[in-house]
Amino acid sequence: TMLANQNQNTHLIHIGIVGSGPAGLMTALSLEHYLPAGRASVTLLDQNDDASDYPGVEYGIQERACRALEKIGLLEQALIRGNPINEITFYNARLDKKFSSIHPDPHYTRAVARQEFLSDMTDLLQQTKVLRRHKVKNIVCADDLRVSVAGDIGHNETAFDIRFDIVVAADGIRSVARRTFFAEHAEIHDRGFSCIYMLIEATPDN
Question: In a designed cystine with 133, which of 55, 148, 154, 191 is the match (CB 3.0 to 4.6 A)?
Fold first, then answer.
């Protein structure tokens, strides 16, 4: 409501997004799509040099993510190098056992190299400022109710401290924001890559 009522409040809202992985980039693209022009400035802070620094080779883009991209008109552009998936089969090498296959909707389930996906999503940004090599170490709520994001830049570790009105933490399982504000939930759990695909709604083979 605050963002929509631009006639009542002309203050430019400064939004910071920590992490330019799939979640951070999707947040930035959605803000660009839904926010009124000139209402906010969006800045992405990321510790990597570029998208190729991200781990992983194959990345499955699932239905919820594809539908979110479709809502802002960027499904095909973001997954221009993705391949539709019409079957997923689980194989346990230790047990030498093949489990039942599932058959998702190929329009809403894509396989794409993670680095290519992140690179293509970054290229779709229109107004968002992307600050690479910015390693966030501290997030503090200041007395003026703004949020201070501080850390080091690059290998020389030059200090930076930027204030935002709103900060979105999209910095993964080692989230600085989670450690700072939700310490009781900051324990790292490796849930395993294959668990991601268990979220897909599909009918298994008989």
Answer: 154
